[in-house]
Design a protein that fits this description.
The chain is mostly helical. Helix content is 71%, strand content 0%. α3 (39-51) runs antiparallel to α4, α4 (55-68) packs antiparallel against α5 (73-85) and α6 (89-102) packs antiparallel against α7 (107-120).
Length: 130
């Protein structure tokens, strides 16, 4: 029995798990070139970029993922996290709300939205009461 070499995606994900973010990027980029429809690989690449402090690259790749998978709460949540890191707080809020609209039970999105609203106050477009 022969064991096949790991795919670019498998290798990229393994390196990401090991905390070797810079090393994972090349494999994840190759995996996306091989299969642009693999949204989970986009999420992994976005995470790798974010961990490297390359927040704008993370935002770019996650925006691509959101365009390709507009009904994925997981994608919108991760894009919200990237926007939050980029200090695009209104965009982050919108993405967390989209994630919750798609999956009202998404605890991580609810928590992220609560923390964001708690740190910034209510959105400007929300009426103030009292």
């Amino acid at each position: 029995m022969t064991v096949s070499a790991p795919s670019a995606r498998e290798r990229g994900v393994q390196l990401l798990r090991e905390g070797r973010f810079a090393d994972s990027v090349d494999f994840l980029l190759q995996a996306i070139a091989d299969d642009p429809s693999d949204i989970d690989t986009h999420l992994c690449l976005g995470l790798a970029y974010a961990r490297l402090g390359e927040v704008e690259k993370a935002v770019d790749i996650l925006e691509q993922a959101a365009g390709a998978a507009p009904t994925s709460a997981k994608v919108h949540y991760n894009l919200g996290i990237a926007y939050n890191m980029a200090k695009k707080l209104n965009d982050a809020r919108e993405e967390f709300l989209k994630a919750l609209g798609l999956d009202p039970g998404y605890a991580a999105a609810k928590s992220a939205l609560d923390m964001l609203v708690g740190s910034t106050g209510p959105a400007e477009d929300k009426p103030q009461t009292g």
